[in-house]
Amino acid sequence: MRQTFIILLTLLYCLSAAGQRKCGTTEALQQRSRNNPALQELIRTTERTLVQGQQRQRMARTEAAPQVITIPVVVHIVMDEPGLVTDAQVRSQIDVLNRDFTATNKDISGIPAVWQPLTGNTRLNFCLAQRTPGGEPATGILRTTTAAGRSFDISNGSPDVKYNSTGGSNAWDTRKYLNIWVTRISGDFLGVAAPPGIGYPTEQEGVVIQYTAFGTTGSVGRTFNLGRTTTHELGHYFGLRHIWGDDSGSCTRTNNKDDDGIDDTPPQGDNTFGCPGFPKLDNCSATYPGIMFMNYMDYSDDVCMHLFTNGQVDRMRFVLENIRPSLMTSDGCQPVSLPGEDASLTAISGTNGKQCDNRITPVVTLRNKGRNPLTSINILYRINNGNVATYAWRGNLASLTETTVTLPSSTVSIGVYNLKAYTNLPNGLPDANTANDTITSRFNFDDIVTLPFEQGFEDDSFPPPGWVIYNPDRSFTWERERAVGRNSRASALIRNLGYNVNNQTDDLVTPVIDPQQADSVFLFFDVAAAVYSDPGTPNNPWDTLQVLVTKDCHQTGKLAYRKWGRRLITHPDALTTEFVPTANEWRRDSVDLTALVSKEKFQVTFRNISNSENNIYIDNIRIVRKDVNPALREAGVLVNPNPTDGIVWVTFFEVPADLLQVSLYNANGQLIATKPPGAIAANNRMTFNLVNEPNGVYFVKLIYRNRAKTIKLMKVR
């Protein structure tokens, strides 16, 4: 394993050291907007606003220099060996940003004289965050260990690296901190930005950087070794486009230059690789001085990147001051002085979301944010507008450490609830910061349903009452599709065609179901599905539909059904447009849940695992009970039909652990057939065939370890 890791590390290092610059920002944004017309319009509107805004910013700059701002930065190092990116490497990158964004970089002399007057100073500085969002001391550097060899792709702005739940690291408040994730990026990309104001979830805003292109020391490579990848991606974060406008070499313009929306960058056909000599001409700037290949927003090597222009500075300042102004007033760069007594409740569990049992037990996380050890505190709490209860905690909690506290249990009836808990009198003294004392949670307890249970998604509410959706990546998930269904007017749908991230899991979970001691439980549902790829493609990562049974409120689940590719689809051919099933493109599937339910309360999970193929629909869900023959329950085993005309079933109520064999004899005592316990099928049934035997009397003999049982059987035609 260690040798494999070294090989992977070497390959990635070489790619970064010797390859060409490749930024994923535009591609990720195109992926997000391809199937979302509303997002496309938002991007166009934002671009128009930025063009107008930078003009106003330029007018303001002529009147007075913009305010000097220091922006707090938190660096999330997310790798299998996060120590490969040292603190010194992080600090070197902050130093680069401080020089590049204030035009104090040592290589500024490399800017040709014709463009020296255009060199812009953003008057932006950067610091490693000195305090957490909760007001505790910080270094601004976080390290998260991933699975060996784990890398993250740039799809949708690389969301997986940005959440603890998907192996990454949760952002600090993006309104007050600039978040930078440093990791292994797949696909030879060096970075990707998720700028504010263009549709990314707020908690995903920031930039992701390939670790070998971050900073100027440590694990940095040879070509992208001056920290300019982060400078480039932060240019995107603050609203800049690539200098050539990502228009595939086109020079089409209307009224004014519109390739990157900036007036003082020369027209440019396409990106620049390497480190060309000056002047460099192209199809858009065919005469001296040519293109501005040394601009931070081109693809040149780090050693040839030297400037932002005044026009680019105007746009970046407009984004900061109008789209993310809260960064300007953040206290993240201010060191913390801890008070003596400061207790905080930072989390609550056991009373969040859907509860599958009416007995709730809140568990709060108590953190000592004071300088002195915390030895006593009162935790007060209440549900809705009920009476306030007090729990007196005693212990010894060191400064900046935490512990969980389990509060007394209580029972609730069906309904929706708010729980509020807060601290009082840490160490018997006033709390220095009462703003962090309180925490709340919202939970619901739904009616437990019985069988038969049906759901056709006909009502407008979705998920239906008592159902829950789990959407870990906060992207595409299950939704109600109006006007599409199997002999109905609606169904549940997941749009895998537009879901451009592989292996993402989305669950649609039923209410809690009480089988009421049913002997057997069966699930029936209609499904319609298609694929984008040729169904005959070998080893293709297909969309997968699973059905699981959970008996612990979705904490775990046991697999009951799994189909993908040709086994799942109802449209036989590849379909590159969005699949909408016709009336004959539905299939009725059934699943025996009996063994997994085991007569206990349960939920059924419909799980989609996306691999960007095409849509999956489900409809007309029906879960029913099937009880056994009362005679079988009483006798434990039945032989039927009796009399028979050929086929004989030996059916057990429960498969006996001490059964050795089952034999069939004729009236003369001759052995006709014998079978071991392994011949008992999943339905607790063993089959014998008397079709070719004469009419008459037969005997079924069951041999157990310490006993035997014989049942008389008649065959007639």
Automatic annotation (TrEMBL):
GO terms for biological process: proteolysis. Residues 169-320 form the Peptidase M43 pregnancy-associated plasma-A domain. It comes from the Bacteria. Gene3D superfamilies: 2.60.120.200, Collagenase (Catalytic Domain), Immunoglobulins. It comes from Chitinophaga solisilvae. Belongs to the peptidase M43B family. The keyword S-adenosyl-L-methionine does not apply. InterPro entries: Ig-like_fold, MetalloPept_cat_dom_sf, Peptidase_M43, Secre_tail. PANTHER family: METALLOPROTEASE MEP1 (AFU_ORTHOLOGUE AFUA_1G07730)-RELATED, PTHR47466. It holds the Pfam family Por_Secre_tail. One of its GO terms (molecular function) is metal ion binding. Keywords: Disulfide bond, Hydrolase, Metal-binding, Metalloprotease, Protease, Signal, Zinc. The keyword Nucleus does not apply. This is T9SS type A sorting domain-containing protein. Residues 640-712 form the Secretion system C-terminal sorting domain.
